[in-house]
Amino acid sequence: MTDISDQEPSDPGADGDKQPDADAIKLPLAPLPKRPSIGLALGGGVARGWAHIGVVQRLDELGIRPDIVAGTSVGALVGGCWLAGHLPALEEWARSLTKTRMLTYFDVMLGGSGIMGGKRLEKALRRYLPATDISQLPQKFIAVTCELATGHEIWLMDGDLAEAIQAAYALPGIFPPRAHNGRWLIDGALVNPVPVSACRALGARVVIAVGLHADAFGQGVMQRKKKFDQLADEGEEGLEKAAKGKLTERLMLRRLFHAGQNAPGVGSVMLASFNILMDRVTRARIAGEPPDVLMTPQAGHIPLLDFDRADELIKLGRNAVDHQIRELESALTYLA
C-alpha cells in the first residue's frame, strides 16, 4: 500500500467520429521484435464502467495483454475480475441486470456513514469473485483508493482482491468507507479518476488509459429526471424486493431516487456533483500525466445509474478500442 500526492492540470480529449472497419483489423496485431511493458489504467464512471468489459475483451483479441493494470472505482472491479479470470462471470451478471433487479442490491442503511450498507453487493462480489489474493494475480494490479482522513491517494497492491475492490468503489455518501490497516478508505476517483501515474510508477513503458468521465453539459446525470422516477416507480415491485418488505427502506429508496416536481432528487444531486468533481480532476491529472493512448468510450449520454445497459456499454468499449487501433500500433512499435 502506497501513499501518493496529488498532481495537476487539463483536458482528456475525446474520440473522433470516424471508426475503422473492425473486419479489416488484423487479429492479433503483428508481433513486435521487442515488446514494451504495457500498463492499462481503467477509470471510474459508475454504471458506465461496463464499457471496460468491452475494452479488455477487445485488447485480448488483439493480443495486447498488459503487464500492469491499475483501476479506480468500477475500473478496479473490471480490472481485478479480468486478471483473476472471472470476467465472463462478471459480464454475465452485468448483462442480466434490470432496473428492478438492481434495486435488490441497494441495502438502505439508516444512520451510519453511507446511504447503502453495501453488504448485498459484497455478497454478490464474493460469489462471482472467489477468495483471491492480489499477489496471486498473473499481472501486477493496483486498486486506487483515497484515505478519508488525509485525502492521500492509497494504492492497494496486496491482500484480498475483493476487499481492495470494495474500497476502490466506496463512493462517499453512498457506501460506507472501508477499514484497512487502521485507515478509512473511499473511492479513489476523488483523487485519481484515471490512474495513469500508478502504471508509470510500476514501470509501464506504454500506458493505455480508459476514461469514462466525458459528459457534456451533465446530460448523463441531469438530462432525464424520469430515469430516477422509473427506478422508484417501475414499479412498486422493485421497491418491495429491494426493501425486503421493510417500510423504512422502501421510503428511503423512494426518497433517494424520486425527483421532486421542480428540483432533482437526492440521488441525482449526489451523482451530478461527483461527476463534476471527477471531470475536473481527470482533466488536471491527464494533462499532467498524459497516457500514450487515451480511449474514451462515448457513453456520456448514459446516466450514471443505468447498470441495466451493459449490452450497449460493452459495445461502446469495443468500439473505443477499434477507434484507437492505429494509435495502439504506433505506440507499441515506437516505444518498444
TrEMBL record:
GO function terms (MF aspect): hydrolase activity
Q: Where is the composition biased (Basic and acidic residues)?
A: 15-24
Carries keyword Lipid metabolism? yes
Region (Disordered), start-end ranges? 1-24
**Alphabetical UniProt keywords:** Hydrolase, Lipid degradation, Lipid metabolism
List each copy of the PNPLA domain by range. 40-200
InterPro entries, per the entry: Acyl_Trfase/lysoPLipase, NTE, PNPLA_dom
> Could you confirm whether the keyword Magnesium appears in this record?
no
Output the PANTHER family linked to this UniProt entry. Answer: NEUROPATHY TARGET ESTERASE/SWISS CHEESE D.MELANOGASTER, NTE FAMILY PROTEIN RSSA
Q: What is this protein called?
A: FIG00613342: Bacterial patatin-like phospholipase domain containing protein
Q: Which organism is it from?
A: hydrothermal vent metagenome
